[in-house]
């Protein structure tokens, strides 16, 4: 039994190392948020049901679009448009479910028809998937640089969102139709969907976004690690030219990877929009692409391509969310949270790839030539 565990840890060294880092962060946060007094010895703000529920909800949203970005990174690509695309899709979704009279005075905003929320969800998924496929065609078929293509998307989609909304906030509360079921599916819990809001129980502490993440993770694991397409994705990331000469349409493989990323982004945009209750185009989803890339890299996805796993991406996402929660609960200044997050990511990746000797190499002096 012990040997099998050791062999498994050696085969999944990156995921095991990140799990160790996650355990350390959870322990520090749990101990560091214990309240004062005798009763506080057995209570931690980190372990309260409300905090754990919020953590699970956030991990669900971030994990879904991080899976899409991780698959793109495995093909040796990059996607910088996630946050901006979520802002644009959030604006369009709210326009779909609100009357034209509540929107800014512009032909584009008033030209979007009001539809039922299931139809709005369908069209958001279609639009996001098509945008991702377009990115994939530009990168895979026309051989444009992924950095440039998605950077243009980062700027363009954010600009379109601000233009459509006239740089004002779009609110879910402006909807005239009944969005109670949409709220349960987007911002509610599994218990809310199955039993309603009146009852309470364990299932009411499981957010729907976390359920969606589990489904996405299972499907993505099968596709990436148990299918021919998954093997093609890894092979394209390792050596695109050799894979192409082997008879694989690498351009289409890359296009499918970006299509998956677009679908994941669109799906995550809907519950996030409902959760926030409004969309401010200038800030909605800001820096989400960087969190997705960081989660994927922490989880073992190499920016050189050809490496990565879905469990690793989930672990990386959890580390980032727990780290943000730790900074907030332990009372660190909010502007310092990004600096602390960046430092922990750097240390985690350095230790994982080079071990403790990585720090020695940074400060090791080269011997002087005789």
Q: What does this protein look like?
A:
The protein is mainly α. It has one domain: ABC transporter involved in vitamin B12 uptake, BtuC, CATH 1.10.3470. It is built from 17 helices and two strands. A two-stranded antiparallel ribbon has the order 1-2. Helix 3 (49-74) crosses helix 15 (310-329) and helix 10 (208-226) crosses helix 11 (228-238). The N and C termini lie far apart (54 Å). The mean pLDDT is 86.
Number of domains: 1
Low-pLDDT segments: none
Largest sheet: 2 strands, antiparallel
Radius of gyration: 22 Å
Name the CATH class.
Answer: Mainly Alpha
Order of helices and strands: HHHHHHHEHHHHHHEHHHH
Got a strand count? 2
Short description:
This protein has 370 residues and is mainly alpha-helical. The protein contains 17 helices and two strands.
Supply the key terms.
single chain, 370 residues, mainly alpha, ABC transporter involved in vitamin B12 uptake, BtuC, two-stranded antiparallel ribbon, globular
Protein topology:
Blueprint: H1 2-11, H2 13-32, H3 49-74, H4 82-97, H5 107-110, H6 117-140, H7 146-164, E1 170-171, H8 180-187, H9 190-195, H10 208-226, H11 228-238, H12 240-245, H13 250-276, E2 278-279, H14 288-298, H15 310-329, H16 337-354, H17 357-363
Antiparallel strand pairs: 1-2
